[in-house]
TrEMBL record:
<protein>
    <submittedName>
        <fullName>Type I-E CRISPR-associated endoribonuclease Cas2e</fullName>
    </submittedName>
</protein>
<dbReference type="Pfam" id="PF09707">
    <property type="entry name" value="Cas_Cas2CT1978"/>
</dbReference>
<dbReference type="InterPro" id="IPR010152">
    <property type="entry name" value="CRISPR-assoc_prot_Cas2_sub"/>
</dbReference>
Length: 95
């Protein structure tokens, strides 16, 4: 399962993401079986656009058994919270 959450981004992100993922709520996109290669290409596109446009925030999360808590993530922009590893458990740290 791959999930992308967008906040305060241009409409082009929505058009692109809905072409490959299901938008289950405003700004929240999911795909049950996105391959690692497709996920990487999607992230490359999102990162490239973000470098040019520089507005909002984007988070991509997917299951990764080799990552802490079996959860891997990529972030662009200012996340409202910080994710920390506390002895192998992911926790949210508010700043």
């Amino acid at each position: 399962m791959t999930m992308v959450v967008t906040r305060d981004v241009e409409a082009r992100y929505r058009g692109f993401l809905t072409s490959i993922m299901l938008e289950v709520a405003p700004g929240i996109y999911v795909a049950p079986d996105l391959s690692a290669g497709v996920r990487t290409r999607v992230w490359d596109v999102l990162s490239s656009w973000y470098e040019t446009l520089g507005r909002g925030a984007i988070v991509m999360v997917w299951r990764d058994p080799s990552a802490t808590g079996d959860l891997a993530m990529e972030m662009l922009g200012e996340p409202p919270k910080v994710i920390v590893d506390a002895d192998g458990i992911l926790l949210v740290k508010r700043e």
